[in-house]
Amino acid sequence: MSITPQERELVTIAVAVACGCKTCLRENMLVARALHVTDEDVADAIKTAANIRRSTTDAVEQYILSDFAETAEPEPDFSQHDNPRIQALVSVGSAFAVNCASSLKKYVATAKTLDITAEDLQEVVGLSAYMKTVAASHVEQVMCPEEFEDETNTLTDYTMPFGPEHCAWVGHCRLMTQLQPVEMAQETRAVSGGAKRA
């Protein structure tokens, strides 16, 4: 079974949190509401992603302070959650977003025990990779504003106002909730390869 639009949106929200992209988070919260994702599922996805972001930072700090000694990580346990499947998908997406290979391996292994298919996991990873690119674009706008706005303070490529309350990637964010895995991979490659954004 493929992941649902609601599951995709929860993964997207989690990845936005894991990447620290408030602009992406705000836009995808609107999409989640349009898809009737429950507030409880959204809150759980945000909490999970925030915990993974924090624990990854703590683990890296501990790794450096202990002269690069590996420490044992607890095995993931999703049995306490109302929806272990969503918890696993969100965890995989978040671990990929924060570049934590050791956590990602554990979450993927646990997800497979919940009958989450390789295709589902590939879709989650493709979505996470795409969202990382989108989040990075917002940082690029800060550092290279001349590439994103003209003298009228408008995003040239999008003809929409520029500012924290506007996401230049709104169309892409919404599109990603409807794409199939192969289309998502193609879209990700196009954006990360520097193709002109439509």
Write a concise keyword list for the protein shown above:
single chain, 198 residues, AhpD-like, 64% helix, mainly alpha, 2 strands
Describe it for me?
The chain is built from 8 helices and 2 strands. The chain has 198 residues and is mainly alpha-helical. It starts with a helix and ends in a 6-residue tail after the last helix. A hairpin with a 4-residue loop joins strand 1 and strand 2. Residues 150-170 and 191-198 have low confidence and may be disordered. A two-stranded antiparallel sheet has the order 1-2. Helix 1 (5-19) runs antiparallel to helix 2, helix 1 packs parallel to helix 4 (84-97) and helix 1 packs across helix 6 (118-143). It has one domain (5-192): Up-down Bundle (AhpD-like), CATH 1.20.1290. The relative contact order is 0.15. It is globular, with a radius of gyration of 17 Å.
Give me the strand/helix succession: HHHHHHEEHH
Give, in spatial order, the strands making up the sheet with the most strands.
1-2
* CATH H-level superfamily title: AhpD-like
Low-confidence stretches: 150-170, 191-198
The assigned structural class equals mainly alpha
Helix content: 55-70%
The proportion of residues in beta strands is under 5%
CATH class category name: Mainly Alpha
Q: Let me know the number of strands.
A: 2
Helix count, DSSP H or I runs of 4 or more residues: 8
Largest sheet: 2 strands, antiparallel
Mean pLDDT: 77
CATH topology category name:
AhpD-like
**Shape category:** globular
Quaternary status = single chain
Rg value: 17 Å
* CATH architectural label: Up-down Bundle
| Distance between the ends | 31 Å
Compute the number of structural domains.
1
